[in-house]
Amino acid sequence: MNLTKPLLLTLSLSLSACLQMGGSPIKNLAPPTNHNQSSSFDYLNSESFDNQISGAMNRADADIQVTFLNPFFPDNPPERIDAWLTEIKGTGGQIKTVPAEGERDIISLVIALYSVYETIKPHLEDYFTYSPAKNYNATLLYRHNNDGETIIEKMVFTHR
Q1: Does the pTM of the predicted model rise above 0.70?
Q2: Sheet architecture: strand order including 150-159
Q3: Do 101 and 82 belong together in one domain?
Q4: Which range has highest mean pLDDT (4-13, 24-33, 116-125, 141-150)?
């Protein structure tokens, strides 16, 4: 028995039903937007961290918080973090610093933070990983350690 005609008929009816309901099978594949959803991650120097951040940005989460288990100095950000900040700045986003709860603001920190790695040349794979950052701004929260040195302890990506 030839199954081609019944199969084509079933496929046609399915597509017709999708179109009558106002939907397109292709349109329904678009990622949902979650401008009200927040995500939170601990920073790990790994590709899986980049994939988690990229996924949250592709979902268009409103806020994505990154906590640093090992805070870093503003003039020496981890390379992965600098790649995200470079993408944000390169696509017209804003990068600002604000004091963590109980800290005072230091304006010179803004200058030191971004001037470190402006010349990263991303590879094609990096482009696809970091390109969702074009829709985000970044806020870095800092604190002074016991030696009085400024350290970054948290970062928040905010959908723009």
Answers
A1: no
A2: 38-42, 63-72, 150-159, 136-144, 95-99
A3: yes
A4: 141-150
